[in-house]
Design goal:
Length: 516
């Protein structure tokens, strides 16, 4: 490490002490030796290092099975990379993969003994699992339509990829207090959900010496979960070439000043709450040198990054097809079909969005009728507007060690039931998580549902939920508000249906759920 760990004191939590003794990214040096021995030989104290390789030990934690997450900056994959991802799921996983809310993918039941060969296959196509978990920069997300979007100020992909490259495998920034999430987007509808990231670059303009520059504004300190915060805007304007320098400085501030005693206080949002934006900006400028003050914020709305249906690209004669993947779980055989479409009709490219869906770009308009009549679209209908298309959910207790409830099955049943009962002209976004965390973005959902620990009248444990309503990232954002009471799983569908009945009865013609 080339930096000095200035934060060391005698009250560091146990992860911090371990990270000082051994950098998380060195985990990759260990695998060849580790797998020569049975998984039972691996100490539980070592499990935190697996995270840096994108691995979580699944329960029961004695079986040597892992959740494995692959990093996909900006959500872009080539058809060849997608074929490799399909192959991983078929050979080592369970024949499906889950699209995550950070434009990546993850697998379950990955066997310990196969990890070195799996890493080799992933690296061979230019992808990695490095830093998809652990106390490090996570996947950098962006506008899923970057470069093809009529509603972006410019294509922010070069800035996004430069940020990704700066931090990838960089041991100056691999010992952070906890995870760190960055978004880079120039879409004017806030397609990358700026306010829920630790650091977000959003579209802005500024007139400097008689010339108007297109660039970025900066938000810091966002993050959802049990104590959610929306990111706050700093008084700076950046030209695209300044993005990496500022990203590096913000991450260094977090590394050097972020809290390391209690993990529940270790996110940037808590430091920012104590410092305020003025002190934060002062420290930032010490590291970057002078920056322009803020220009014009060009965000005008919020699309939630939704990309569904057949839509025109900004390139004449080309369209993309956005495919709804209910609950984000997709069979590898289905994913292969989308890779084939990209190879046959498109430009060998597929993208994942952060609403657990995918899109195939660069499709010629004169082939759209042929493409949309392919059998795969009988299973994945396009141009629909269903609860299933806009809902999201996390992994849940099927594979996640922290979950109180299952999620994928409950969400699927709930969304199907709502589709049978209602049809609204504007989507209502129902998001369900299995615990107080927000791996799916429950705090900004129209209807956010959180799994909780509960017991029935006989004191037996049951699956139950808390419901919150009215979340949005329109106009800077609004976190949803909890409705008092616990809802047992047995009546969850009825309760949500009743809630939506009130909305259906009371709303004005074109009013959204958030506005009601
Ligand atoms: Fe697990 Fe909770 Fe994240 Fe869901 S939100 S995947 S239950 S940690």
């Amino acid at each position: 490490m080339t930096y000095v760990a200035t934060w060391v004191d005698d009250k560091l939590n146990k992860n911090e002490i371990a990270k000082l003794a051994k950098d998380g990214l060195t985990v990759f040096d260990d695998f060849d030796e580790l797998v020569k021995h049975p998984f039972s030989d691996v100490s539980k104290d070592y499990f935190m290092y697996f995270k840096y390789a994108g691995l979580t030990v699944q329960k029961p934690q004695t079986d040597g099975l892992f959740m494995l997450r692959v990093k996909i900056p900006g959500g872009f994959v080539t058809a060849a990379q997608l074929r490799m991802l399909v192959g991983l799921g078929e050979t080592y996983g369970k024949g499906f993969l889950d699209i995550t809310t950070r434009q990546s993918v993850q697998y379950h039941n990955i066997p310990f003994a196969k990890l070195p060969e799996i890493f080799a296959k992933i690296e061979a196509v230019g992808l990695t699992t490095r830093g998809t978990e652990g106390d490090i920069n996570r996947n950098v997300i962006g506008n899923p339509l970057a470069g093809i979007d009529a509603r972006e100020l410019f294509d922010a992909t070069p800035a996004l990829m430069a940020v990704h490259q700066k931090f990838q495998g960089n041991t100056d920034y691999s010992n952070l207090p906890r995870k760190f999430k960055i978004s880079v987007s120039a879409n004017i509808d806030n397609a990358a959900n700026a306010e829920i990231n630790d650091l977000a670059f959003f579209p802005a303009t500024k007139a400097i010496n008689g010339r108007t520059y297109k660039g970025f504004g900066v938000k810091v300190g966002g993050g959802l979960g049990a104590k959610p915060y929306l990111a706050r805007t700093l008084d700076v304007f950046l030209k695209p070439a300044q993005v990496v320098k500022v990203a590096e400085a913000v991450v260094a501030i977090y590394r050097d000043f972020g809290y390391r005693r209690s993990r529940s206080k270790a996110r940037l949002k808590f430091l920012l709450e104590d410092w305020g934006t003025e002190q934060f900006t002062e420290e930032l400028l010490k590291r970057t040198g002078p920056l322009e003050t803020a220009g014009k914020n060009e965000l005008v709305g919020w699309s939630n990054g939704l990309i569904l249906g057949v839509q025109k690209q900004k390139q004449r004669g080309l369209s993309y097809v956005g495919v709804s993947v209910p609950t984000g779980r997709i069979l590898t055989e289905d994913l292969l079909k989308f890779a084939e479409i990209a190879e046959t009709y498109g430009q060998n490219e597929i993208r994942f969005d952060h609403s657990q869906n995918l899109l195939i770009p660069f499709l010629p308009n004169n082939k759209l009728a042929e493409i949309t009549s392919l059998a795969i679209f009988d299973k994945y209908p396009i141009n629909t507007s269903r609860f299933q298309d806009f809902g999201m959910t996390c992994t849940g207790n099927e594979y996640c060690n922290l979950a109180y409830t299952s999620t994928k099955d409950i969400t699927r049943d709930l969304l199907v039931a709502l589709d049978e009962s209602f049809q609204f002209e504007k989507p209502v976004r129902v998001i369900l998580t299995g615990c107080m965390n927000a791996c799916a973005h429950r705090n900004i959902a129209d209807i956010g549902i959180q799994g909780i620990a509960a017991r029935d009248q006989n004191k037996q444990p049951i699956e139950a939920f808390q419901i919150a309503i009215g979340g949005s990232l329109l106009a800077g954002g609004h976190l949803n508000e909890e409705i008092k009471g616990k809802v047992p799983k047995t009546v969850l569908i009825d309760v949500v249906r009743d809630l939506l009945k009130v909305y259906a009865d009371e709303k004005a013609a074109s009013e959204t759920f958030y506005e009601t």
